[in-house]
Amino acid sequence: MQTNSLESLWLPFTANRQYQAAPRLVVAAEDMHYVTDDGRRVLDGTSGLWCVNAGHGRRPIVAAIQAQAARLDYAPAFQMGHPLEFTLAARLARLLPGDLDHVFFTNSGSEAVDTALKIALAYHRLRGEGGRTHLIGRERAYHGVGFGGLSVGGIGNNRKQFGPLLPGIGHLPHTHDLDRNAFSRGQPAWGAHLADALERLVATHDASTIAAVIVEPLAGSTGVLVPPQGYLERLRAICDKHGILLIFDEVITGFGRLGAAFAAERLGVQPDLMTMAKGLTNGAVPMGAVAVRGAIHQTFMQGPPAAIELLHGYTYSGHPLACAAGLATLDVYAEEDLFARARGLEPLWQDAVHGLRGLPHVVDVRNLGLVAGIELEPRPDSPGSRGYEVYLRCWDAGVLVRQTGDIIALSPPLIVSESQIAEMVGGLAAAIREVA
Ligand code: PLP
Q: What is the rounded CA–CA span in Å between residue 16 and residue 151?
């Protein structure tokens, strides 16, 4: 493929000038591999951006999108529907844990997060508790880039360019502690009490002002922070005590990443709302969604039948191509039992990634499901540079890893074979050894 100029495109979350000096281009993908513009095969250790959970170019998904494009390209999203969006919502409701049984479609994780926050605010208002306007996020959280998600998000670098963001936001402490939890296998033992910070926020602001708490069950983008044992349970209990809604942002953890359909199921904690995206369509067509508990949905269905219950939505909510991709994706997950496959691979995966312990500059290895974070000691004068060099070495050696500062994240498609795990971790080990 000929790319005449790299000039016109502004790439997201990218050092554009650095990228243009040495561009990386992929032109095709199949199963576990990308193909670059110069014909190299690269093993995908990150499911693209945590989204291609069933592997690339899966035929049934491709065929479903092609057929749907030919049958119904677009249907107005407001005051009209098309069959696939109802079918997909019903399928999701069956897959979702507990009474999360109503689904609102968006086009991305960011939109799902902003939608969930708006539903939480509107829900309390409908119940006569319109004073509940505070939204609580967590340090180091990533909830996308909308003003809502950015406001509850906790990655300082992502926020600092954009002014004061939303008012009335609080943040819980993050759960990462290298002194206590480094090299934990699975959920770390220390840290459940960090959820008690929510009680302090309640004491400061009063429960009657707090609408919702949003957390990633496992924080992915910030560099894989695994929830301490008992932490999410404690957060759930405090939310219940004070009538605060608990939102799980499962944009990364959904669809098998943690060895179950959702983290809520794997970790046994039920949220009131859940956001999802990415693996929902295996990354093939953009789509996000918010699932809400039946009782929350019911609260909106009380007014006059002619009144619009939620004044919110997107031109492309429930887009036919996305729904076709979503339904075919759920079929692939089910037919190949991929969530259970991920769970079955977890012990081997855990052993493989913890084999990196002891390599130069490796200060932590952590894992849950088919996710791992490998933290490197930052260079005192240039934090992030070591991680970036490791990422580049891996790419040159034919393995795609994800780098956040000096943390390397791995999250391969759930179809990864045992030998590919060895190749992936081996490639990363070699890169870590080579980078001083
Ligand atoms: N929430 C979480 C937990 C995410 O990890 C992401 C993206 O990585 C988002 C929200 C934003 O999703 P999107 O990039 O589709 O807007």
A: 25
